[in-house]
Design a protein that fits this description.
With about 180 residues, the protein is an alpha+beta fold. The chain has one domain: Jelly Rolls (Sandwich), CATH 2.60.120.380. It is about 20% helix and about 40% strand. It contains two helices and twelve strands. α1 packs across α2. It is globular, with a radius of gyration of 18 Å. The structure holds calcium ion (2 copies).
Length: about 180
């Protein structure tokens, strides 16, 4: 019980931290030069960053994903706003700690502006769960056909798989009850 309380306290302390917006830092075309994204999985956190693609450019972001943690990432191309979310046309991949491509998405979601849908859809989204040891993984953004120009937002979140998430929520509830006495 004491360990659980300490863990829950640490969770609360971390929860009070603010996560600043991040920006890509070129060169970041390889895992060795990746731009870091600093998130925690427990408590769950999310952040938004901004990057720009040019022809041939690759943007790699490093993110520490603990075991049994789920990462969600989505690009929002905004080079053609107002109008649509179609430029730059992004590809979003998850790379292993060694830099091998695990998954990659091209076009995902449904876009709308004001009272109507817009298209074509060119933003990307991935959901990934790490079942191995805690480690640094990589999110890779590149342009379709490596021929894209323009700015995009990269929104990223981490949260624990359901069993751990239940423990986190249970710990927070326990703390809340103790504080209310
Ligand atoms: Ca870039
Ligand atoms: Ca780059």
């Amino acid at each position: 019980m004491r360990i659980r309380l300490i863990a829950a306290s640490a969770v609360l302390a971390l929860a009070s931290n603010a996560f600043a917006v991040y920006y890509e830092t070129e060169p970041n075309d390889t895992i060795a030069t990746a731009t870091p994204i600093n998130l925690t999985c427990a408590p769950p956190t999310a952040d938004i960053g901004f990057g720009t693609l040019t022809p041939g450019d690759v943007d790699v972001y490093a993110i520490h994903i603990p075991r049994n943690c789920i990462a969600t990432a989505i690009t929002t191309p905004f080079g053609s706003i107002p109008g649509n979310f179609a430029s730059p046309d992004t590809l979003l991949g998850v790379l292993s700690p060694g830099g091998a491509l695990i998954i990659e998405d091209d076009d995902a979601g449904t876009d709308g502006i004001g009272g109507a849908g817009v298209g074509p859809v060119r933003g990307s989204a991935v959901r990934y769960m790490n079942t191995g040891p805690d480690d640094v993984y990589y999110l890779r953004v590149r342009g379709f056909l490596d021929q894209q120009n323009g700015p995009y937002a990269l929104t990223v979140s981490l949260f624990p798989e359901p069993a751990t998430m239940g423990l986190v929520l249970g710990g927070l509830a326990l703390i809340a009850r103790r504080r209310s006495r």
